[in-house]
Amino acid sequence: MNDIPRQKLQYIISQFGRVVCDEPKRCEALLRDLCPENRREINLLICDNDNVTVDGGAEGGILGTPRFMAPEVVRGQASPGTRTDLFSLSVLLFYMLMVHHPLEGKRESEIKCFDLPAMNRLYGTEPVFIFDPYDDTNRPVLGCHDNALLYWQIYPQSLRDIFIKAFTDGTGILNMAGCGRVNGGLK
Fold first, then answer.
1. Which domain range does residue 11 map to?
2. How many domains in the chain?
3. Residue 120 and residue 34 share a domain
4. What does the pLDDT look like over 18-62, one tens digit per residue?
5. pTM above 0.70, yes or no
6. HEC profile for the chain?
C-alpha cells in the first residue's frame, strides 16, 4: 500500500487540527486534492464512524446489530466497547468460517415470530453456543443449519476448541474481554 495518503492525512491534521476528522467528506476531499492518484488508499483511510466512541466516553446513538452484539449489550447490562467488541469479532469470525451464526440452532428454528423479544432471548438472555459441549439444547438442525454441520467438521480440532472456549467458558477470545460463560450469562 502506498504510504503517501497516510502522510498527507497526518499533514492535514497537523495543519487543520483533528476537527477535520469530524467531517469525513471534507477530509476525503482534501486528500483527493493532495494525492488524486491514490484513490484506493484514500478509501481505506477515510471511514465514517458516526457511532464510534472511546470506552467510557459519550455513548453513540446505535448499540449495534443484536446478532453480533455481546449478550450483556443485548440485555442492556453493558455499553459497547473494546471488551464487547471482542465478542462481536468472535461471532464474525465464526460466521465467516462456518457460514452460520454461533447461536442459531434448534432454539432459533423453533421461533415462530422472530421479533425483538425472540432476538433478545436468543442473543441476550438465553444464548447457547450451537456446539456447546455442556449443553446440547441448541444444536444445529439437519436440513436447516447444514452449513454449520458441514463446515464445523472440516476445520481442525484446535480451531473448534478456540470457538468452544470463546462461546462457552470464556477462556478463549472472551477471556481477553473479561467476559465469562455465554450460557448462564456473562460476568
1. 4-45
2. 2
3. no
4. 666 666 677 677 777 777 776 666 655 555 444 455 555 555 555
5. no
6. CCCHHHHHHHHHHHHHCHHHHHCHHHHHHHHHHHCCCCHHHHHHHCCCCCCCCCCCCCCCCCCCCHHHCCHHHHCCCCCCCHHHHHHHHHHHHHHHHHCCCCCCCHHHHCCCCCCHHHHHHHHHHCCCCCCCCCCCCCCCCCCCCHHHHHHHHHCCHHHHHHHHHHHHHCCCHHHHCCCCCCCCCCC
